[in-house]
């Protein structure tokens, strides 16, 4: 078969919703970086990973669980669901575990979306909030943050004036970092249709400053809408390589349906054991999140001093305007051993996201970064 024949065959085989999706903008694995650039990374700051790694207790439990890998894991993750329920004050029947919160985003979309349904989200946003819906034939309306990076409540409420199957957004918002306030969440829920599923992605919740952080679960429960909050062990708990996330929902029926649409063995035995131990080690969690909060304040100031405007962040990353094509800046930094993520969503291709690593990694990033003049603001457009 020639390449032309293969292309023609693919065009008939692949659904257009999938063929038209952009590639996922993943961080670069260290082995791949070495193979391409011929050097070791000085600072890997492109995937929002925890530079301290997981709790030592989690590593110990992984070693213990390794002896059990000839058996299938508990498909219902009963022990982990019970521990999360006890920690969050909900019933275990309201909790679902997945292969990272991305797995659960896909499961929710497969469960509730029909072709032609409307999904409302933010711009810029985590790509899977958009791609997962588009893959199922939904129409996605993206509401852009304003120049002040406050949650665009008026525009979100206007978008929700028409029927919408799903409202999905993250807080802290990825990639920019702002958080929605308690009164803003209540205001948004009051405006949303009662049959709109609200998906609150809280992947970076643990990094929010104590004076700003609030428990969104009781606020979501005040609204009329069905809802699910998504959280993860990949970020603050340092288990990105094991893939464990969870959802907490208002609707036990939704949880039972999600159990049918997700991979029943998506969380392996090592991941489940590590997540249980990580959840219990509050001291390690506090150490990791304190480091990230201190570094984001320090590095935001350093970026501004070099001429890079920075969005206000409550996560373990900073989103900054690069003064030109972010891809060019990211490529130049890679050649110096520093990895950041150039954003690929219009109109933010002149913005980049940098993870808060160790102080030494962050210093290497700032040292490698050229000074620039103040860039011009961009206007919003389609991806």
Short description:
The protein has 383 residues and is of the alpha/beta class.
Any overview of this molecule?
The chain is of the alpha/beta class and 383 residues long. It has 15 helices and twelve strands. It has a seven-stranded mixed β-sheet, with helices on both faces. It has a three-stranded antiparallel β-sheet with strand order 9-12-11, covered by helices on one side. Strands 1-10 form a two-stranded parallel ribbon. Helix 9 (182-191) links the parallel strand 5 and strand 6. The protein is globular, with a radius of gyration of 21 Å. The two termini are 34 Å apart. Residues 374-383 have low confidence and may be disordered.
- Beta strands, count: 12
User: How many domains would you count in the coordinates?
Assistant: 2
Helices, by number, come to: 15
- Briefly note the structural class of the backbone: alpha/beta
The largest sheet has its strands arranged as 2-8-7-6-5-3-4
How much of the sequence lies in strands comes to: 5-15%
Write down the overall mean pLDDT.
93
Low-pLDDT stretches: 374-383
Which oligomerization state do the chains in this entry correspond to?
single chain
Rg of Cα set = 21 Å
Main beta sheet: 7 strands, mixed
> Helix amount, in percent?
25-40%
Name the CATH homologous superfamily of the largest domain.
Type I PLP-dependent aspartate aminotransferase-like (Major domain)
What pattern of helices and strands is seen along the backbone? HHHEHHEHEHEHEHEHEEHHHEHEEEH
């Amino acid at each position: 078969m020639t390449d032309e024949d293969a292309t023609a065959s693919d065009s008939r085989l692949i659904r257009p919703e999938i063929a038209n999706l952009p590639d996922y903008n993943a961080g670069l694995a260290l082995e791949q970086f070495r193979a391409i650039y011929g050097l070791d990374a000085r600072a890997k700051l492109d995937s929002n990973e925890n530079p301290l790694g997981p709790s030592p207790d989690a590593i110990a439990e992984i070693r213990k669980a390794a002896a059990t890998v000839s058996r299938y894991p508990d498909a219902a993750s009963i022990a982990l669901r019970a521990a999360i329920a006890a920690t969050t004050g909900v019933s275990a029947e309201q909790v679902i575990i997945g292969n990272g919160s991305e797995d659960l985003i896909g499961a929710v979309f497969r469960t509730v979306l029909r072709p032609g349904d409307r999904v409302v989200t933010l711009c810029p946003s985590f790509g899977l909030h958009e791609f997962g819906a588009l893959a199922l034939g939904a129409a996605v309306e993206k509401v852009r943050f304003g120049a002040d990076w406050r949650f665009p409540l008026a525009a979100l409420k206007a978008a929700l004036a028409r029927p919408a199957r799903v409202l999905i957004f993250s807080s802290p918002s990825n990639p920019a970092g702002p958080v929605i306030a308690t009164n803003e969440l209540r205001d948004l829920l009051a405006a949303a249709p009662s049959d709109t599923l609200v998906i609150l992605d809280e992947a970076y919740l643990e990094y929010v400053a104590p004076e700003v952080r609030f428990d969104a679960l009781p606020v979501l429960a005040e609204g009329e809408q069905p809802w699910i909050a998504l959280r993860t062990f990949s970020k603050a708990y340092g288990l990105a390589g094991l893939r464990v996330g969870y959802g907490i929902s208002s609707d036990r029926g939704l949880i039972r349906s999600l159990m049918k649409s997700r991979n029943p063995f998506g969380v392996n035995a090592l991941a489940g054991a590590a997540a249980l131990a990580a959840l219990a080690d509050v001291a390690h969690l506090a150490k990791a999140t304190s480091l990230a909060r201190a570094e984001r304040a320090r590095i935001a100031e350093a970026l501004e001093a070099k001429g890079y405007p920075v969005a206000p962040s409550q996560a373990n990353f900073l989103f900054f305007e690069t003064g030109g094509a972010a891809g060019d800046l990211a490529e130049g930094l890679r050649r110096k051993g520093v990895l950041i993520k150039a954003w690929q969503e219009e109109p933010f291709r002149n913005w980049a996201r940098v993870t808060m690593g160790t102080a030494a990694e962050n210093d290497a990033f700032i040292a490698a970064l050229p000074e620039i003049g103040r860039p011009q603001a961009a206007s919003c457009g389609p991806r």
